[in-house]
Amino acid sequence: MTTTSFFLGLFAPLGLFTVSVGAAHAQANDMFPTKAAAEQRAKELKCSGAFAMGGEWMPCANERSLHGALQKEK
């Protein structure tokens, strides 16, 4: 059992997850150690900017923009 499936099995019945497993996996793959790397990924996703998430960076101006870009990428 993966960590993701464990947590989804534990918390999904409580309604604590609002993103799909695919989106969660894509999001985890779009975390970068530098702002420049996240901005490069943003160009690939056809969005702009980067935002901090914990100690890492994610592409697009904010999380909402990132989710929209990831949906279009599919």
Structure report:
- It is a single chain.
- This protein has about 70 residues and is mainly alpha-helical.
- It has one domain.
- It has 4 helices and 2 strands.
- A two-stranded antiparallel sheet has the order 1-2.
- The radius of gyration is 13 Å and the shape is globular.
Q: What is the number of E strands?
A: 2
Order of strands, widest sheet: 1-2
Query: What's the alpha carbon Rg, rounded to whole Å?
Result: 13 Å
Strand content: 5-15%
Runs in which pLDDT lies below 50 for 5 or more consecutive residues are: 2-8, 16-23
Question: Total domains, how many?
Answer: 1
| Continuous helix count | 4
Mean pLDDT across the residues is: 77
Q: Percent helix among the residues?
A: 40-55%
Span between termini: 26 Å
Structural class: mainly alpha
Q: Give the overall shape, derived from the CA principal axes.
A: globular
Largest sheet entry: 2 strands, antiparallel
Taken in chain order, the helices and strands follow as HHHEEH
List the helices and strands and how they pair.
Elements: H1 3-11, H2 21-29, H3 35-45, E1 50-53, E2 56-59, H4 63-73
Antiparallel strand pairs: 1-2
Highlighted features:
74 residues, two-stranded antiparallel sheet, disordered N terminus
Structure described in brief:
With 74 residues, the protein is mainly α.
